[in-house]
Amino acid sequence: MRLEPKPAPSLAVTLLFPLAAIATTLVLTSILVLAAGASPLSVFYLVAKGAAGSQFALLETLTRATPLIFTGLAIAVAFRAKLWNIGAEAQLYIGGVVTVVLGTGALPLPSVILIPVIMVAVMAAGALLLLGPAVLKTRFGVDEVVTTLLLNFIVLLFVSMLLEGVLKDPMGLGWPQSQKVVAEAQLPRLIQGKRLHYGFVIALASAVLVWVVMKKTVLGYEMRAVGLNPEGARFVGILVNRALMKTALLSGGLAALAGFSEVSGLKGNLTLDLSPGYGYTGIVVAMLAMLNPLGVIASAIFVAGIFVGADAMSRAAKVPSYIADVMVATSLLTMVVAILLTRFRIRWR
Amino acid sequence: MDALEILFTASFWVAAIRIASPLIFATMGELICERAGVLNLGIEGIMTAGAFAGWFTVYSGGNLWAGLLVAALVGAMFGLLHATLTVPLGLSQHVVGIGVTLLATSLTYYTYRLALPEVTSPPKIEPFQPLPIPGLSSIPVVGEALFTQTPLTYLAFVSVAAVAWILYRTPIGLAVRAAGENPSAVEAQGISVTSIRMGAVVVGSALMAVGGAFLTTSAFNSFFFQMINGRGWICIALVVFGSWRPGKALIGAILFAAFDAYQVRLQQISGGIVPYQVFLMMPYALSILALILVARRATYPKALMIPYQKGER
């Protein structure tokens, strides 16, 4: 068996393969639904209805998509330069910590100043957290996959320590949770009385900004060159290590914004269940978007829809909501195969 | 008890060897994959699946060894998935590995919820019992630590000897090592790199799953969510720490486990002055530190993470 490169695919083909990947995912997960004794068609219908069947459902999906856009962008940026940042979960939590430290009354500033100040600090913290593994990679040759993965566990324990120590809410009835951020540090709701907040708008703006950086700036060109061919990039005079550092700063900062947006826009305080794995799901979001920053918006909404829809479905049908995690993981694997098939032809000989 | 005295007690070393056992299985599994040139980040999920498969087989009335076999088969299946995508198709080993971990973990949780919809506390099974080796187990400290364990721990040590012997003393081991160093040389011998690499990933993944099953059928007696808790990632660090050699990786696993057992005991005698989270962080921090110390001298298998296409140079 061998792989032969194909001529560049047309736009229609490029879009057809991801759809085929999703269709394959649905067929494969149907087996699991059948194993649960339910009908796949009605279960998928319930998932779709739960994700987008009403105004409430749709707003909930967009709310859930917000942190995924941030972590998806973080991964898309890093993976483009082949910097394997699997630590978005840790960067998200650090973002939450900084939001709570600065947002619970330490800075008596009006909202228009306080929120940008918090956002800059949050991005700086997330950026520094990823800078460590990036320096270890370039200076010592330590694989960043392992270090970023291990940092996820260290940071979660660190957050747990803070929530039982200095950041513990004295009025929290003993629960490990922080105080609520002050009103000036809260992102307003987009629609009065609904959960969707301005974090979603910031996420959309970030996606556009990241797209501009990747497509229109020297930095974006350097990042893509380093990812495609580090030796070649070095040969044309790109400082590869420096480009990797910049990538790490941008990626870590974006992931940390997910934590800021969740605390400041949705939850109000920091708890140990701030993220049900948004950092890891961001990898799937980025891959489904083929690492395109604007595609991240669509794939984050799609993935969020599966989770929100599956929650609603599992209340109605007797199928565990973990079906959503299986669907998302399966779609990651079918998607990478689909991308391969748009570029190569398999020859059996 | 004094913080240093702990190190000379038999019970401490018994615990250390017990903690090391699942890491030994999984580290050997990852080592085989990487020696053949494939990084297997599916390890964390494969261990989760193995832990559940082994436990569930016993819970459904199977015997403990049958549980182990089922775990190994489940691991091999996920290994086959990983190998198919990364070896002949040459897809990114990072992305596929994370995908396999996500898939194996979510499939495990789904199956658990499907099989046991109503339970709140995980049901227990009768796990492997300690099997003291007559004579050897009465040697003070060392004998007690090594020879009063469950049969699975003995099997973990056997697996190290087996992996070392196969890698360095058999033609197939030579082919595996060469596939990770210089795949064209393997192909020149008329051996298929694809088959060698896929075989290594399948066997390695089966070992990882057995490591997971150790936790549910020997160390503890039930399955609960998030029980692997980063052990898979630590095993990847242990492979690097052991410079891809079974013996060194074994020493690394035991050192790591001793440290882990030690931090639990320090936690007890520290009397709550230091937050317990600091102790829990130590094993992860130690793994990163160990990586930094050895990374400069590390001799990676030269073809690690490089897909091989026949006839391509």
Notable traits:
heterodimer; A: 72% helix; 2% strand; B: 313 residues; mainly alpha; ABC transporter involved in vitamin B12 uptake, BtuC; 0% strand
Describe the structure.
The complex is a heterodimer of chains A (349) and B (313). Chain A contains 13 helices and 2 strands, in the order βαααααααααααααβ. Chain A is an all-alpha fold and 349 residues long. Chain A has a domain of 215 residues. Chain A has a two-stranded antiparallel ribbon. In chain A, helix 5 runs antiparallel to helix 10 and helix 7 runs antiparallel to helix 12. The longest helix of chain A is centred in the middle third of the chain and has 30 residues. Chain A is globular and about 70 Å long. The relative contact order of chain A is 0.21. With 313 residues, chain B is mainly alpha-helical. Chain B has a single domain, classed as ABC transporter involved in vitamin B12 uptake, BtuC. Chain B is 68% helix and 0% strand. Chain B contains 12 helices and no strands. The longest helix of chain B is centred in the middle third of the chain and has 27 residues. Chain B is globular and about 65 Å long. At the A-B interface, helix 6, helix 11 and helix 13 of A face helix 4, helix 10 and helix 12 of B.
Briefly characterize the structure:
Chain A has 349 residues and is mostly helical.
